[in-house]
Amino acid sequence: MSPIWHPFTQHGLQEPIPLVERAEGAALYLADGRRIVDAISSWWVTTHGHANPHIAAAIAVQAAQLDQLIFAGWTHEPAETLARNLIALMPHPLAHVFFSDSGSTSVEVALKMALGFWHNRGEPRHRILVMEHSYHGDTIGAMSVGARGVFNRAYEKLLFDVGTIPFPKAGSEQATLDALDAACRAEPVAAFIVEPLVLGAGGMLMYSPDTLRAMHAICEQHGVLFVADEVMTGWGRTGTLLACEQAGITPDIICLAKGITGGSLPLAVTLATPAIFEAHWSTDPAKQFFHSSSYTANPIACAAANANLQIWRDEPVRKRITRLAERQAAMLGELAKLPRVANVRQCGTIIALDVVDTEGAGYLSEIGPRLRESFRSAPVLLRPLGNTVYVMPPYCIDETDLGSVRDAIVEAVTSLGS
Ligand SMILES: *Cc1c(COP(=O)(O)O)cnc(C)c1O
Fold it and tell me: Among 48, 236, 361, 414, which is least packed, fewest CB within 10 Å?
């Protein structure tokens, strides 16, 4: 038996844990000889496909030149190049780049930046507003601003209190906007953190760019910092490079991770406006930003991210995204006709549907395990969120592989009976 303790895995269920030997494009190759289509981009990170040769080459070159460097008071070219090129891609005036190594830490950094901003200005504000059903990571701070549930019940006492705004369900958007406005008026609020357009781990819940724009306007009006967690939505997932682009807004802080290296190495950034940076700028050491991790801006990870940006510049990535979105729309149209399927939805390259559970939905409901069981015997990697099935493949996936994904979903859903 392996000594490995896997994440989000109940070892007591003794489900098989496949051994993967290599990967290429949208395919994983298993030790037992099977070829599996990665329909969820290995947990939403792989954008251009696995083992991209340009990214792999950049990693090899950088690993032989400068592997790691303390980043407090030192710098290196891969990070400088990456920061400059990121800023050029981001909406004005996001002008400062803080590095970390996962989506969760990019969120911790964002929260600390927001609190530091108010603290250093001498008008401390501590209240953080969040959206119902949101997910921002698994560290204590990130869990605090995410939905409470079975995932964090054991740690709930340690999580800090936040104000929760209802999710803007289609038709009830005004209730969300009213609640946000009321919460901003009720007390001094430091920041509102939100996943733009798609709430990922919360069940691929989607809302409109208009609502995103309206929420941003309310925060702006009350001087509340707007934090966009684009860890999942960034790098083309929603059809545009950033989801925020579709609403035409510039957040005060943006978190990026997952696809920043094309899905090859862990790296994250938290981008901030000059106002937030300047609140920490001083000759007083006590006002500096107190955050770091050992691998902050690791040069190899930065080189991988630079190679990712180069791919965005050199290759027709946007065209691939548009084509994938079209194919996903066609597939969703077919899946919508299946019995038990409800709430079909799409945002860019992401499609999702709910498999209606007659005994009541939820992450631990019976539908989820039965779907998972069915997907285990199919040549695809799909990992439903409870009774929500979603498809979020690498942009390079072809028609045949997408067909296998569709077949697996059809099989899983029809095997449940109607
Ligand atoms: C995955 C995710 C995170 C956490 O990122 P990790 O790299 O897994 O720590 C944070 N926010 C959102 C929206 C995510 O989807």
Answer: 414
CB-based contacts of 304, cutoff 8 Å, min separation 6: 55, 58, 59, 62, 261, 262, 264, 265, 267
pLDDT beyond 90 at 286: yes
Last residue of a domain, one of 314, 336, 351: 314
pLDDT of 371 over the 80 cut: yes
Provide the domain limits for residue 346.
11-51+317-414
Is the minimum distance from the CB of 216 to ligand 1 under 6 angstroms? no
Cβ–ligand 1 contact at 238 (below 6 Å): no
Cα separation of 214 and 218, whole Å? 6
HEC readout, 250-291: CCCEEEECHHHHCCCCCCEEEEECHHHHHHHCCCCHHHCCCC
Measured distance CA(402)–CA(397) in Å, rounded: 7
Of 44, 45, 135, 260, which is best to mutate to test ligand 1, by the most ligand atoms within 8 angstroms of its C-beta?
135
Q: Whose C-alpha lies nearest to ligand 1, atom 11? A: 136
Q: Are residues 349 and 291 in the same domain?
A: no
CA nearest 384: which of 395, 405, 369? 369
Task: Judge whether residue 414 has pLDDT over 80.
Answer: yes
For residue 257, the CA-to-ligand 1 centroid distance in Å is 7
Q: Is 110 part of any domain?
A: yes
The structure's pTM equals 0.97
pLDDT tens for each residue of 194-239 = 999 999 999 999 999 999 999 999 999 999 999 999 999 999 999 9
Residue 260, pLDDT above cutoff 60: yes
Same domain for 343 and 296: no
Asked if residue 350 has its Cβ within 6 Å of ligand 1, the reply is no
User: Tens digit of pLDDT for each residue in 132-159?
Assistant: 999 999 999 999 999 999 999 999 999 9
